[in-house]
Write a structure and sequence with these properties.
- By secondary structure, this protein is mainly α.
- The chain folds into three domains: about 120 residues, no CATH class; about 180 residues, Leucine-rich Repeat Variant (Alpha Horseshoe); about 100 residues.
- Helices cover about 65% and strands about 5% of the residues.
- The protein has 20 helices and five strands.
- Strands 2-4-3-1-5 form a five-stranded antiparallel beta sheet.
- A hairpin with a 5-residue loop joins strand 3 and strand 4.
- Bound molecules: 2-acetamido-2-deoxy-beta-D-glucopyranose (2 copies).
- One 2-acetamido-2-deoxy-beta-D-glucopyranose binds next to helix 4.
- GO terms for molecular function: adenyl-nucleotide exchange factor activity.
- Its main location: endoplasmic reticulum.
- It is found in: Endoplasmic reticulum lumen.
- Keywords: Endoplasmic reticulum, Glycoprotein, Protein transport, Signal, Translocation, Transport.
- One of its GO terms (cellular component) is endoplasmic reticulum lumen.
Amino acid sequence: MKLNHFIFIICLVLGAGAENENEDVFVADTEWKEIKEGQKIPPGLHIRINLQTGKKEAKLQNEDMKKEQALVITKGQKAKVHIPFSELKQTLKNIKSDEGQESSKTKGRQFRTYEEIKTELGGLNLIPKLDSEIIKELINDFKKNEKLENRNITKIKNILEDLEYLSHQIDNAIEFVNQNGFRDIVYKALNDSTAEIKIISLRLMSSLMQNNPKVQIHALQTSCINELLKILTLEKSISIKYQAITALSSILRRFPLAQKRFMENGGLAVISKVFQKGDIKLKVKLTTLVMDLVTEHQLSSLSEDSKDALKQYEEINIEDKLIEHDWCENVKTLLKSLVSVDEDNHDFIEKSLRAMNILVKHCAGSYDDKVLNYLVQKYNKLGVEGIDEDDEYSLSSYFSELKDLCDDLLKSNKVMQKTEL
Ligand SMILES: *[C@@H]1O[C@H](CO)[C@@H](O)[C@H](O)[C@H]1NC(C)=O
Ligand SMILES: *[C@@H]1O[C@H](CO)[C@@H](O)[C@H](O)[C@H]1NC(C)=O
């Protein structure tokens, strides 16, 4: 990421007003102003975050920028680097939880802080416990509660949620593994008859493995991939499948050995089936996973991965295998259904277009000109309407980028169609 890149968001969701007079509330102006540590942010502001320094700034909203839209802008020029909506949402969530530190007590479980969990679990003992002790207690608590004849599902869910919260920290996740958490908790809870427990267990699994190679290896060694494939094959519930895809993504990303195992165990056939039966959201989720994996493979030769890893990537040969499993058709039909049922979901359409673009070498010629032409016109129009006087940012660049993407796909399509004639 280059210097001077800001993320812009409009603060619609943040925004708890001050609950008492002593709270430090950010006072907005028409100019950008830094948000100080611990300040509350009133709703309805523009917020931007410097991706380099993490510095957050806010100002009052312009009249004509009402939509909840987000763009990345290079200062003084048109935006070229683009960050997907989903990442911005994550950033938004992060600010939300920063902000939640102080008001967590009034907002319920979701905003409990790390310190609060520690204090609460420590009972009246005010000396904060070591994380490893807390993890141990939670694991024991789970075992105890799970065995009870009259299980308290809420209690069990709370334990899993606390563990999930703690496991975002890499060291805690490793501690959890060392204390046999996968065996005693994750796989047990995955097997639970209550859907809610299954779902939280999958969330716990995802956060344990995410960007944590040690945990990824442990999960692979304990047949995590097979467990996930089993769930994806047998479960009927879309929300369980959705969480299982998230967990799958956590173990597969940047872990070629796991990808290899996934392929060997028929993973591509499983996800193709899930795709065919899934709703739009699930389809977009799977398409994103596929796109991320292909991107990782395409970039692997540029990265500093070891020779071994490079060899593994080559052996996996993911692109050809995806094509064998109909992914040209999948991405094409996904775009078509999106345009017919949810055409203003720019985030989904963008993901779908990017997936088509990443597979263009294999799939050009088979994409649907009519749908792409329709989108070109649509984004062209939106791009012109979105032009803003404040040239520090502009909505139009987001739509123009989508239009360019469609144009490129049309061009590649034409070239291939000509060659085929
Ligand atoms: C179940 O556990 C929750 C959370 O600990 C508690 O609030 C609730 O009263 C318990 N329900 C029963 C029936 O014990
Ligand atoms: C999962 O459930 C099945 C059937 O209820 C049982 O046979 C199996 O041992 C369970 N697996 C785990 C890891 O608890």
